[in-house]
Amino acid sequence: MTITKSQYEELLAECSSSQGAIALLKRYRSYLEMLPSMRRPLESIITIPLPVVRFRATATEKNRGLVSDRTAVCLPCDIAFLMCDPEWKIKTGVEIFVFIHQPQEDFSDLLGRWRETQVNLSRGYEWDMPLRYRHILSEGADNIYPLFVLFDETPERIQRGLKGAFLPYVLRSVQLDDAKEKGSEGSELTSDDSLWADGQEDILHPESQD
């Protein structure tokens, strides 16, 4: 079976809300612990589907006319999660970029979107924030993290490729029927215990549950 556009759109819509974002992060201890407040998680994260950033041109670039002062680019990720302090209403230095496996996309295409995001954010940038968050400082962060979301129908070689590149991924099942399209709430992590080295393995492992 192949991934359909409806499956992709369903998961994109689900993860675009704060509730969906928290549900996605709950099984990743290191990512979840990046939330500024565990007591107010929904106020601690800003979700931006198909995000846009604006680059700050250097003096040399402006003098040479290479780029305008605020060039806007739509990042090739699907959703950005920005951590926000709910008390002070300020953005912290952590940003998580979600890459959902798209129809007809192979391993090099999926990984290439993360690499392109890394290149784009290697220079000074600021976020084009959603209207309700325009009062929050929009400067880019120092720490960016990827999270890949795959489907049951995703080719196994993509899982092997992400594992070999030491990149975290999660499998999601999306059930669609003729009456109503809906995404499953379950999330299953599929990486080996030894995937991450140097004390980073917990990024890829779910919270232990009693």
Outline:
This protein has 210 residues and is α+β, with helices and mostly antiparallel strands.
Identify the overall geometry. globular
The fraction of residues assigned to DSSP E strands is 15-25%
Annotation field: number of helices: 6
- Ranges where pLDDT stays below 50 over 5 or more residues in a row are 178-210
Helix content: 10-25%
* Total E-strand runs: 9
The strands making up the biggest β-sheet line up spatially as 1-4-5-7-8-9
Protein structure class: alpha+beta
H/E series: HHHEEHEEEHEEHEE
CA radius of gyration is 18 Å
Q: If you average the pLDDT, what whole number results?
A: 81
End-to-end Cα distance: 35 Å
Explain this structure to me?
The longest helix has 14 residues, at 107-120. It contains six helices and nine strands; from the N terminus they run H-H-H-E-E-H-E-E-E-H-E-E-H-E-E. The strands form two sheets. Strands 1-4-5-7-8-9 form a six-stranded mixed β-sheet, sandwiched between helices. Strands 3-2-6 form a three-stranded antiparallel β-sheet, with no helix packed on it. It starts with a helix and ends in a 21-residue tail after the last strand. Helix 6 links the parallel strand 7 and strand 8 (169-172). Mean pLDDT is 81; it is low at 178-210. By secondary structure, it is α+β, with helices and mostly antiparallel strands.
